[in-house]
Every structure is written in structure tokens, then in C-alpha cells.
Amino acid sequence: MKILLLNGTIVGKKTRTLLDEIDKYIADLPDKHETKIIDLEDYELQFVDGRPPEDYNEDMQQLIKEVEEANAYVIATPIFQGSIPGTLKNVFDAVSPLAMRYKPVSIVANGGTLQHHLVIENQLKPILNYFRCMVTPNYVYTHTNHFSTQGELIDEDVRNRLKEMTRVFNQYMQMSQEIEPDK
Prior knowledge:
The chain is an alpha/beta fold. It has helices spanning about 15-25, 60-70, 85-95, 120-130, 155-175; strands at about 1-5, 35-40, 70-80, 105-110, 135, 140-145. Helices cover about 40% and strands about 20% of the residues. Strands 1, 2, 3, 4, 5 and 6 form a six-stranded parallel sheet that branches. It holds the Pfam family FMN_red.
């Protein structure tokens, strides 16, 4: 399966650190998968305004293509001002609602307070439900205390939760292969 590890921000390093950790756990799964980490900061993003994909710049067209062609996703997002970043929402606005249907998704997020985990429940999950994704029930939320001042993951409990999330994500990937595509 082609797994897209999407870093939904253009600033900071913590969400990328989490994706790097998950990428290692995916490599340890019994089945081999093709993973790709996408950092939105590496793309010249355009504001999505409803035009056809071919009317956006090459970076946006490539990003849309990579999202739509993936078989599964791990989405990493910081929480800014009690919300997901506009860059991540912009990506969701760019892809076809059918593109992510019945595809597995796991979520990792990082915020400044413990209460910001509610953004996952109140904003990100409804978007993914609109796409009819198969969202794993065990997302991982982190905050500043889980990282060193250099942005390294230092919390063993978070590592264990990431491993467990990856295990469940693998089960969802197996389930998704049994679903008949829409005709």
C-alpha cells in the first residue's frame, strides 16, 4: 500500500518528528508498505478557490495527485488558535471528496495545552468523516512537555501510543482491502 504521511503545517518541527517516528514503526510491520512523507512547507501552495486542479500551479497539482493516489494516510497537525492550520484545510479543500473514501487514516497532533486535543474531535474528524475515511479510534495527541527544547520526542508513553496507533492503523489497512469500490 502507498501510505502518505502528511505534515499539515509549514512551520515547526514537532509534527515532522512524530511522522518520522511513525515511519519507523510502519517499516517494522509484517507487510511492507511504500511510505512518503509530505511536508507542506516544501510546496508552493495556492489558495483553493474552486477552480479545476489543472488550473493550479505544478506544486498544487502534484500535491493533489499524491493525496488522491495514496491508499492510506497518517495526518499530523499542530493546533493553532484552537484550530487546525489553514494550510491543512486548504489541502482537504483541494482534493476530490471521493479520493479518500474508505481509506484508512490515523491522526497525530501537537498543541500547547492539553485541552487542544478536542480540535481533533471537533474539526479534523468531521472533515475526515465527510470524506468517509476509515479513521482509527486511537489518535495520538502531544504537547510541549513531550519534546526536548531541540524538538526531539522524549516521552516513552507517547512512543508506545504511536506504536499502538500504528498497529491499529495496520489492521485498518487490511480491512480497507476487503471493501468493494463504488461502481
